[in-house]
Recover the amino acids of this structure.
């Protein structure tokens, strides 16, 4: 997928001010996201593959991390030809960044040692801090915060860390994440949500500039990271999973400043009464009222979503669709119920599926096979085996209608399995998804009007693994040609609705 070169990183350092001391500090994000010398403090002893530290070492090697790695274990040791250092102080020269995975009570000393070694930042994977609600946990986290004030910026504690595809820096347990950099940044209080989205994105076609799981946020939080991503040229859309905030005014001000430049999609956890109880023990945050969150996020033009899948779908639409508002859409597919579903979904999200002009409708109907087809919008092709060249002409003809802003085509490729017995080919070879992808992308290039592909299939049982394989290959092919892919028509329309909401408001503010 071509999102541009991404070679310009734009912002390497960001200044922040501590409200109490009024002291301004600089965050060296270049050394944090692209460290040349990386220490891992708390790697398991030789022969053991248990523990976060050794897990990170294995993951970084699997990701072909671009810098030098310096594992630290007080007993020394060796893993895969890499010698361990007994102390941080034994590492030659300075370090850029550190991953700390020791027990909570040992974290402050490890962090201080990394600071003295010149590290710009450190991520603390260890738990056992304020999320416990104990005096010991609170005191330990305060120690971390005090050390951070001396110049080393901290991600965590109680987090999964940072994923930066360009450098090969990966989060726990991210040994199999993509090295392809892209336009999505994701900030998450939850490590599980961060790694889930990174894996989900790999399947859906999302590519990331950076993902940051910041856990308890003792030091670096959303307010520090948003200004960086707002000016980061690698990033075009920012997703966030938030459970609670320390300072509401600063948080929403940071979002407002960011949404004037690029979209911010927010999934707020802990809006139910049970959820609020859970987040206190998860990341030691306070949740807040559902109505207050909805109201304020709307005021700052952030897009609020209900779950991680909706967040990923919204980010996908923002990445692939040109900036703009798409009020009138056409839908091409099969089945009478399609028309009802499409029109209802469009209306729910402020769009219309308008009737085509008479001239366009007549031209479309001449292209479609008979009987059962219809050239009204939504367009019913009636037959799942319509030739790709005919579908191309239908899409190109509809694009001529000036009122249509965007087209959605529902491709029921799973029907091709019934043909495999006749032609003696596997489903992946019998299905013309490559031809479809090429022809549909040609229409976009010729007309300038986006096309969204819905790869619908309810066949996902044990007997349908060949269909799942084919749909995976088809998704990859459509995405590679700049065509966003969704699993469901409703989800596709909802994602377009989020794009419309953001750009309509931004146009009013400008």
């Amino acid at each position: 997928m071509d999102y541009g070169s991404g070679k310009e990183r734009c912002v390497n350092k960001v200044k922040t001010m501590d409200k109490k001391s009024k002291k301004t500090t600089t965050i060296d994000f270049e050394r944090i996201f692209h460290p040349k010398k990386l220490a891992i403090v708390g790697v398991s002893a030789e022969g053991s593959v248990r523990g976060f530290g050794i897990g990170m070492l294995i993951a970084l090697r699997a990701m072909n991390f671009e810098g030098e790695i310096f594992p630290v274990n007080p007993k020394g040791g060796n893993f895969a030809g890499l010698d361990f250092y007994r102390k941080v102080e034994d590492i030659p020269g300075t370090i850029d960044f550190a991953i700390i995975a020791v027990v909570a009570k040992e974290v402050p000393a490890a962090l201080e040692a990394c600071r003295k070694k010149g590290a710009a930042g450190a991520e603390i994977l260890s738990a056992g801090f304020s999320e416990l609600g104990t005096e010991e946990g609170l005191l330990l986290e305060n120690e971390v915060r005090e050390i951070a004030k001396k110049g080393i910026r901290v991600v965590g504690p109680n987090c999964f860390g940072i994923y930066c595809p360009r450098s090969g820096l990966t989060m726990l347990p991210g040994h199999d994440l993509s090295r392809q950099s892209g336009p999505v940044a994701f900030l998450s209080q939850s490590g599980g949500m961060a790694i889930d989205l990174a894996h989900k994105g790999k399947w859906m076609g999302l590519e990331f500039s950076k993902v940051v799981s910041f856990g308890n946020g003792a030091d670096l939080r959303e307010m520090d990271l948003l200004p960086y991503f707002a000016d980061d040229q690698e990033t075009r859309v920012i997703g966030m999973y938030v459970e609670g905030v320390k300072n509401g005014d600063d948080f929403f001000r940071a979002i407002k400043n960011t949404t004037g430049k690029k979209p911010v999609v927010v999934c707020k956890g802990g809006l139910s009464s049970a959820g609020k109880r859970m987040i206190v023990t998860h990341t030691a945050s306070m949740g807040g009222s559902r109505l207050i969150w909805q109201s304020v996020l709307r005021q700052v033009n952030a897009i609020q979503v209900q779950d991680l899948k909706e967040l990923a779908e919204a980010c996908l639409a923002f990445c692939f669709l040109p900036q703009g508002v798409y009020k009138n859409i056409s839908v091409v597919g099969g089945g009478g119920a399609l028309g009802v579903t499409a029109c209802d979904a469009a209306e729910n999200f402020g769009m219309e599926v308008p009737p085509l002009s008479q001239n366009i409708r007549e031209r479309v109907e001449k292209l479609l096979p008979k009987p059962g087809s219809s050239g009204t919008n939504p367009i019913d092709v009636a037959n799942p085996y319509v030739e790709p060249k005919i579908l191309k002409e239908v899409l190109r003809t509809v694009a001529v209608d000036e009122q249509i802003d965007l087209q959605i085509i529902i491709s029921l490729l799973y029907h091709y399995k019934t043909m495999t017995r006749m032609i003696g080919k596997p489903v992946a070879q019998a299905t013309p998804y490559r031809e479809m992808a090429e022809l549909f992308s040609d229409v976009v290039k010729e007309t300038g009007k986006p096309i969204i592909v819905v790869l619908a299939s309810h066949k996902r049982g044990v007997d349908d693994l060949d269909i799942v394989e084919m749909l995976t290959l088809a998704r990859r092919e459509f995405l590679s040609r700049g065509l966003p892919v969704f699993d469901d028509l409703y989800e596709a329309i909802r994602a377009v609705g989020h794009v419309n909401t953001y750009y309509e408001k931004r146009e009013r503010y400008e």
User: Anything to note?
Assistant: The domain at 323-509 is CATH 3.40.50.261 (Rossmann fold).
